[in-house]
Amino acid sequence: MPLIVKDYSWTQTEALVYINVPLKGVTVGKVDIFSTDEYLKVNFPPFLFEVILYAPIDDNKSVAKIGNGVVIFTLYKKEESIWENLALMNVDKETLQEKREHAVLKAQEKAVADAEAKAIKKREDEKYALETMMKLEDEERKRIEEKKEWERRRATEELELWKEKQRKEEEEKKAQQRREIQKLENEKKKKNETKTHSKSVPECPRKRTMTKTGKSEEISLPAPRSAGNIKIQFTPRVFPTALRESRVAEEEAWLKKQADARRAVNVDVSELKDLKEEERNPDWLKEKGKKLFATQNYLAAVNAYNLAIQLNHKLPILYLNRAACHLKLRNLHKAIEDSSKALDLLTPPVADNADARAKAHIRRGTAFCELELYAEGLQDYQAALKIDPLNETIHADAEKIREIIQGTVPDS
Amino acid sequence: MSTPLEKPQIISHIQKSLNYTVFDSKWIPCSAKFVCMGNFPRGTGVIQIYEVQHGEVQLIKEIEKAKPFKCGTFGATSLQQRHLATGDFGGNLNIWNLEAPESPVYSVKAHTEIVNTIDGVGGLGIGDGAPEIVTGSRDGTVKVWDPRQKDTPVANMEPIEGETKRDCWTVAFGNASNDQDRCVCAGYDNGDIKLFDLRNMSVRWETNIKNGVCCVEFDRKDINMNKLVATSLEGKFHVFDMRTQHPTKGFASVSEKAHKSTVWQARHLPQNRDIFMTAGGAGGLHLWKYEYPAQRSKKDAHDIEMGVAGSVSLLQNVTLSTQPIASLDWSPDKQGLCVCSAFDQTVRVLIVTKLNRV
After folding, report:
1. Residues of A with CB below 8 A from B78's CB?
2. pLDDT over 70 percentage in chain A
3. Model confidence over A147-197: pLDDT tens digits?
4. Fewest beta carbons within 10 Å, which of A54, A156, A403, B290?
5. Which residue spans adopt a coiled-coil conformation according to this UniProt entry (chain B) (predicted)?
6. Mean pLDDT over each residue of chain A, to the nearest integer
7. What is the C-alpha separation between B85 and B107, in angstroms, rounded?
């Protein structure tokens, strides 16, 4: 049970009431004041001071000062009068309770109303600030636009003026030209009368290409340059697309992959363990095969190509070259086989491998003809012609085969 | 607030939407007219002549021909004749009299593939020497033509036998300071820039800028070579100082990255050779000023002269379109007036202000 404080003191004037409540040693921090228009409570444990006021006061204006061991209330009366007592007397417990509850309710309502009022005010302030900002920015923009418009208008006017000037100059020029023509015609007439052929009469008036000063059109321009030819070389580039720095890394990676794919596919075959390092490279073997073919050592060339194919059976060029070797060795069936294999590998047919495909067709065609399978041979020659229609030798050979088939020329 | 408005402003004065793809636009010298060249959707070529009148462009004439036009120039005609030299998709070089366009004044099958680029020198009262036209094509050759000589070029820069061809994307004349001297600079799609000397018929300098070269231009055609701007893919451009050539290092250069996409064109202001505008693949235009270094040449370790490149500063930039601006041309008569065309089928007349105060 809190201790009720009874040793407070109070004074009053017409409009004000002063209440002095001693704090009895309780610290300032522990003092809690609750007040409404009719009810006043100061709670400083273990003490309690409450009073139901004689008459209503203006809660908003009233002030409480806490310090120096006392709380001093300065209350503004709602109605100016002299109170007989500070508190309402003859109050029973029930009325007191009622009043207290009423006071609490009122206080709560007031708090809510205050909060709302604050929120509304804040919103309005913000709206105002935003509107002012927008107005400022609009003005700024309008100003810039006006400046631009002004510049545009000025430029248009200048342009129109300049065009006018141009037009006037044109007219002047034309007028002057006419005058000059007149003058020259007069001169001509005079010259005709004196019967001297003056070569200095320019032909310009008819062409109307005179300059303002009437100079002859034949201001000597230098003769056309003597033809020259400059041969140039480009920085090498594999791809047909334009060079872009950001793509260089990708392109390099692709080229490297292509190069790696041409290396030995399966290097750990047992027979190959005793091969030298360079003999494991299909490219090197291909070069070796070519050299052997050139020196007419066809069997050795075939061996080289066999080994190369063992290492990498996906290179069409190896089959192609081996077919040529077999042709020379008269292993016609093997030649046909190898040409067919090469053609298989040379799909899809693109411009890049046109030469290779033409060669494959020619070799296979030759082999068929040697085997007297002329129809198949002609088919292959025609395919080769389709790829390379400008080749004379293919034409000639195809003709020969056709004649043989038709039986006009006896087979030799 | 006052400093931003002291910079040159690029203002879009007139915008005209066209019904065809326009590849090139050029001012007709000594007039307020310009031509647009392009490609109708039906596959034929078109040249339209517009006149700037009171804030609008009026179509004066439209000429339709069999093959689409890729590029054109007035550089090689006299001021009186003002004939337009064009290159088209079929590899033909034609010179048209715009008053009588039924048949060309000069016509030749210049290349086997599309003529990508064209330039002219010796006309318009600028410089001395014979009027000449140079064309560059996808067939890898660069040919120089004289309108007085039929059928054969006066110079042919072609790859040696057996060499794979690279597309030539741009050509420019320069160093035409007297009757004899003349240089042609060509840029290719593999990043090569080659400088040909027509007096000696030789390659004077070559380099590779690691990106396909979209446009080369000398700052002036009719003086000793001073500066060369080369723009490329990947948003880069290089400015070469062409006054001092080092035997091994070539010309000094400064490079700049701008536009974040292909830089399609660079054009110098006819009235001030240190100001140029670049047009980008994202529809933007950047206005640049070149500042010379304190000393334009210095001696290297072996006591040989080499050039020193200056610096480039951005004066202004603006984005006009979402599509690349493929062509740009300054008016030689009115400072700051320029016409540009973009792949969104519009041609725009722009005004650049305050250039006299830069």
Report:
1. 209
2. 86
3. 888 888 887 788 788 878 888 888 898 899 899 999 988 888 887 766 544
4. A403
5. none
6. 81
7. 9
DSSP-derived secondary structure letter, A28 = G
Task: Round to whole Å and give the CA distance between A227 and A120.
Answer: 90
A-B Cβ pairs (cutoff 8 Å, strict): 132
Give the C-alpha distances (Å, rounded to integers) separating A138 from A133, A141, B3, B6, B135: 9, 5, 20, 21, 52
Decide: B132 and B123 in contact? Cβ < 8 Å: no
Residues 6+ apart with CB under 8 A from B263: B214, B215, B231, B232, B235, B236, B237, B278, B279, B280, B281
The candidate with the shortest Cα–Cα distance to B175, out of B141, B134, B218, is: B218
Distance (Å, whole) CA B1 – CA B10: 18
Answer yes or no: is pLDDT of B107 > 90: yes
- How far does B33 lie from chain A, in Å, by closest CA? 10
Closest by CA to B75, choosing from B125, B144, B17, B140, is: B125
From residue A318, how far is each of A256, A343, A388, B117 by CA, in Å? 21, 12, 22, 45
Nearest residue to B308 (alpha-carbon basis) of B248, B243, B219: B243
Q: Which of A163, A228, A242 sits opposite B32 (nearest CB)?
A: A163
Interface ipTM: 0.83
Q: Which residues in chain A land under pLDDT 70? A: 193-219, 262-280, 348-351, 408-412
DSSP class of residue A38?
S
Q: Under a CB-based contact definition with an 8 Å cutoff, are residues B67 and B86 in contact?
A: no
Name the pairing type of β-strands B33-39 and B202-208.
Answer: unpaired
Query: How wide is the angle at C-alpha A74 spanned by C-alphas A71 and A75, nearest 5°?
Result: 125
Task: Reduce the DSSP state of residue A272 to 3 states and report it.
Answer: helix
Does residue A267 belong to the interface with chain B, where contact is any CB pair within 8 Å?
no
Q: Does A219 touch chain B (CB under 8 A)?
A: no
> A241-256: per-residue pLDDT in tens?
888 988 888 888 888 8
Note whether A155 contacts B336, CB cutoff 8 Å: yes
According to DSSP, the residues that pair with B299 across neighbouring strands are: B305
User: How far, in Å, are B209, B229, B272 from residue B233 at the CA level?
Assistant: 10, 14, 26
